[in-house]
Amino acid sequence: METDELTGKIIGAAMKVHRVLGTGFVESVYEKALLHEFRKEGVCVESQKPLLVYYDGIVVGEFVADIIVEKRVVVELKAIQCLGQIHEVQTVNYLTATKLDTGLLINFGAASLEFKRKFRTNPSANKPFSL
């Protein structure tokens, strides 16, 4: 499955979860529902995956990725009124730490599902994003 097809499948599952549950739940509720949808479809997922951040060959930090799908896409979940640039930067930082190229930032807290595709590198120029 191509990455665009995979991200489309992830977004479709998120839309289904949002349509059924609506807004108002905490992030973990949406995460569990989304994981259930993925597993029903036979999609390989890891949730609450601890990851290390390296600098100059040493560990300088750690974080937990909400979901990693098929070892190719980082999914960062939110359940807030609206997304801000800080959430986008956080998602790109997770991509940098995992060395994965594609991420999805998904917000279940708005009236309509919000999602943004984020990339570790600029797909058209193949250069790192400047933040």
Please tag this protein with its features:
single chain, 131 residues, alpha+beta, Trna Endonuclease, Chain: A, domain 1, 5 strands, 31% strand, disordered C terminus
Question: Can you walk through the features of this model?
Answer:
With 131 residues, this protein is an alpha+beta fold. It has one domain (3-120): Trna Endonuclease, Chain: A, domain 1 (3-Layer(aba) Sandwich), CATH 3.40.1350. It is built from 3 helices and 5 strands; from the N terminus they run ααβββαββ. It has helices spanning 3-21, 27-40, 85-98; strands at residues 45-55, 58-69, 73-78, 102-107, 114-119. A hairpin with a 2-residue loop joins strand 1 (45-55) and strand 2 (58-69).
Using the alpha-carbon principal axes, give the shape. globular
Please report which band the strand proportion falls in: under 5%, 5-15%, 15-25%, 25-35%, 35-45% or over 45%.
25-35%
Backbone structural class? alpha+beta
Major sheet characteristics: 5 strands, mixed
Distinct helical segment count:
3
Q: How many strand units?
A: 5
Rg result: 15 Å
> Can you give the mean pLDDT?
90
Protein name: GxxExxY protein
Task: Please outline what is shown here.
This protein is an alpha+beta fold and 131 residues long.
Helix-strand layout with pairing:
Blueprint: H1 3-21, H2 27-40, E1 45-55, E2 58-69, E3 73-78, H3 85-98, E4 102-107, E5 114-119
Parallel strand pairs: 3-4
Antiparallel strand pairs: 1-2, 2-3, 4-5
Helix pairs in contact: 1-2
